[in-house]
Specification:
The chain is mainly alpha-helical and 407 residues long. Helices cover 81% and strands 0% of the residues. It folds into 2 domains: 190 residues, Up-down Bundle (Growth Hormone, Chain: A), CATH 1.20.1250.20; 195 residues, Growth Hormone, Chain: A (Up-down Bundle), CATH 1.20.1250.20. It is globular.
Length: 407
């Protein structure tokens, strides 16, 4: 690799990293402290659950729709979609700062900004591969890993700032960092004429080969959709561990400080794996990596179920670097490998939908199990679900080794 290419790759990676870091810092402010914000506005736990369920269901509906429009290669590109979404969230947060005393308005606007942020998450991922095809080489794993680190750092400082400034600091954080992200997106312009496949893509679109209908999409990519189903199972258990971690660790001597350390440990350990994923894919086929990720999700849940002290909880959190940290970039590359270009944004959206659906089912089911039968029963169910997901993914990815074409 020449010095010029290295410099160009570093330049594109830096700007893409800023987009990721600002997105996940804002994600921390909106998603990480949802309960804190809405409880302060007078919401009950039940009403918070309804608001989040509505937002997640809407995001599952709109992610494939928006992705399908982008895949048609019209005026709505990945970058434009990300810019519009960022601007809408900024406006929503400004509204919440000004009219935060109106409970009905808060319910609607918060659900919308929560949903919008979920909808354009796969768009940011797809943008990496779009730009790579145009010759803008990006270290995707490094950029995504630094996004996780920015989430952890933001959570660390916001948790301390809440006591001094109150919940308004959450909306101020989101407005500030997304304003930086919006500027970064504005200048993140793809070189003209860089994509040698554009004409082929347009020809495929003209011939009606874009699979925007979920039935056609499933018929075209049956193994991929089986992988998506397995991913729903993985993220059922993953979200159960994350959402109810305080309830899990309290009986074994954990407290809020322990919770903070456990969350920070898992988030910070994502960076080395994501940063090195390109190198790893040069040595290990991608399907094997994704299967390994599924095994790690299951082992992580097993360790948490068997945990009798915080040391074992931290060990379970350590498995994050082999589970979530492999799955996120690995699944992104998997979409890029197995799908035609005009279906790739939808592919990223369906993966993101699997994460969302896993969280929805986990919230609806695990909370009830926790109330009725306790943490061990909830973790046992999560372990069974994760193991079932592993079996499904083994079937989906067992055909042949997949060598990354972009690593």
């Amino acid at each position: 690799m020449t010095d010029t290419v290295k410099k160009d790759r570093g330049f594109w990676t830096l700007r893409y990293t800023i987009i990721n870091m600002t997105y996940y810092m804002a994600y921390c402010g909106i998603h990480g402290y949802t309960a804190v914000f809405l409880l302060d506005k007078g919401f009950s736990n039940t009403l918070i659950g309804i608001d989040l369920a509505l937002a997640n269901i809407l995001s599952v509906i709109f992610q494939p729709i928006v992705a399908g429009i982008i895949d048609k290669q019209g005026k709505l590109t990945n970058r434009i979609t990300a810019m519009i979404s960022t601007a809408l969230i900024i406006l929503g947060c400004i509204f919440l700062l000004i009219r935060g005393d109106n409970k009905a308005a808060v319910f609607i606007v918060f659900a919308l900004i929560y949903m919008i942020q979920m909808v354009y998450q796969p768009v940011i991922t797809a943008m990496n591969f779009e730009y790579s095809m145009a010759g803008c080489k990006i270290y995707f794993g490094l950029a995504r890993g630094l996004g996780s680190v920015s989430f952890a750092v933001a959570s660390f400082f916001v948790g301390r700032a809440l006591g001094t400034y109150g919940v308004k600091i959450l909306m101020i954080l989101v407005i500030f960092v997304l304003s930086i992200g919006l500027v970064a997106l504005y200048f993140f312009k793809k070189p003209e004429g860089g994509n040698i496949e554009d004409e082929n893509v347009k020809e495929s679109i003209d011939q009606g080969m874009v699979h925007n209908n979920i039935i056609d999409f499933t018929r075209t990519y049956p193994k991929f959709m089986l992988f998506v189903l397995g991913s729903v199972f993985f993220f059922f258990s993953h979200n159960a561990l994350n959402d109810y971690l305080l309830q899990i660790i309290t009986p074994i001597g954990g407290d809020e400080a322990s919770l903070g350390r456990a969350i920070f440990l898992a988030a910070i350990l994502e960076l080395p794996t994501m940063a090195l994923i390109n190198k790893v894919m040069e040595k290990i086929p991608l399907n094997r990596l994704l299967i390994f990720s599924g095994i790690s999700f299951t082992i992580k849940t097993l360790i948490m179920m068997l945990a009798f002290n915080m040391g074992m909880v931290y060990l379970s959190q350590f498995m994050q670097m082999f589970a979530y940290a492999v799955f996120i970039p690995g699944s992104a590359y998997y979409v890029n490998m197995v799908m035609d270009k005009y279906d790739q944004v939808k592919g990223q959206a369906y993966v993101n939908c699997s994460i969302t659906l896993g969280g929805v089912f986990s919230s609806l089911i695990c909370g009830r199990i926790l109330d009725v039968a306790g943490t061990k029963a909830m973790l046992a169910v999560s372990l069974i679900v994760s193991a079932a997901g592993l079996l499904i993914v083994l079937i989906a990815l067992s055909d042949k080794d997949l060598k990354s074409k972009t690593a």
